[in-house]
Amino acid sequence: MFNKLFGTAAAALAVAMALAPLNASADAAFPDRPIRFIVPFTAGGITDNVARTVGARAAELLGQPIIIENRAGAGGNIGAEYAANSKPDGYTIFLGTQGTQVTNPLIYKTASKPEKALVAVQGLTAIPNILVVNESRPYNTLDKLVAYARANPSKLNTSSAGAGTGTHLAAELFQSVAGVKFSHIPFKGSAPSITALIGGQVDISFDYPVSTEPFIKDGKIRALAVTGEARLPSFPDVPTLAELGYPGASSVSWMGIFVPADTPAPVNAKLEKAFAQAIADPQISSRLIAFGGVPLKKSGADFAAFVKEESVKWGNVVKEANVQLD
C-alpha cells in the first residue's frame, strides 16, 4: 500500500517538475498572441476612450494587438464578473474602475466580489468631479453655497448621472464633510443631469470635466470647485475643495488594469511595465488630460494599497448615506 501511494506521489511530482519549465517558458514568451481588454461599459464613453487610447500604446510596447471587448451592464458588474472568471494567463485584462472594484460591491446587494477575484496591476487615470451650479443661482462661491445649504437643509437639489455613481457619491462625501444636506435627484447619465442643471430644474451637480466643460465655457453653468487634489489645466482659476477648506471632501473617479487572480507574477510584471510606460508617454498623458483626468501612476502593490484605501473611504460614505441598489 505504501509503495503504491509513494509511487502515485512520485508520479505527480514528476509531472509537476516536467510542466514547470513549460510554464516558465510560456511566461517568458508572453505575450505571443492578442490580448483581450474587457471594458465594462459601452463604446464611445470615457472608459472606452481611455481603454482604447492607452491600450493602443501598450499594444505597441508588448508587440501584440490588444482587442477591446465592451461588456456593459449592471453598472459594470457584468464585465467585472466575466473578467474575474476568465483564464488567469494574462490574455484577458480588465479595465477596473472605482465603481467596479470599490463601490459596486458596497451598494449592490447581489453584486459579485471582483475586488477578491481581480488583482490590481497598474493605475491608468484619475478624474476629478467639478462642483457646478446653475448660473442664475445666488450662491456663486462655495462659501455662499454652504451658508445657503446650512440655512436651508435639503432645499438644494443635486443631480447625478445615477444613484451610486461617482457623481452621486462625490456629493454625498461633500455633504458629510461640510455638514450640509442636499436632496438627490438621479438621472440616467450625465447628459440629462447637466441638461436639468442648465434648465434650472436642479441647483447643483458634481459631474465630470468632459460633461461640464463646454457649458462652463459657454457660461451656462458656473464652476465653484474641483474635487481632485490639483486644479485642472483647463480651468486654472477654479480652486480645489481642499484649497477652500474641505480637504476631506477630495475625491476622484479612477481606472486601472486588473487581471484574474492567480495570473503568473512574471506576466503581471510585463503588463504593469507596458501600461506604466504607456501612460508616461507624453502623447498619451496629454490625451488623458484632455479626457479630464491625469495619469494615475500607481503600480502593483502601491495600486493595490490605493484600491484598499478607497474601499475604506467609500465604505464609510455608502454606510452613512445608506446607498443601496439591487
TrEMBL record:
**What residue range is the signal peptide?**
1-26
The record's section on CDD domains has: PBP2_Bug_TTT
Q: Which InterPro entries match?
A: BUG (IPR005064), Bug_dom1 (IPR042100)
**A Pfam family that the UniProt record links to this protein:** TctC
Which keywords label this protein? Signal
- Describe the family membership recorded for this protein in Swiss-Prot or TrEMBL: Belongs to the UPF0065 (bug) family.
Name of the protein this chain belongs to? Tripartite tricarboxylate transporter substrate binding protein
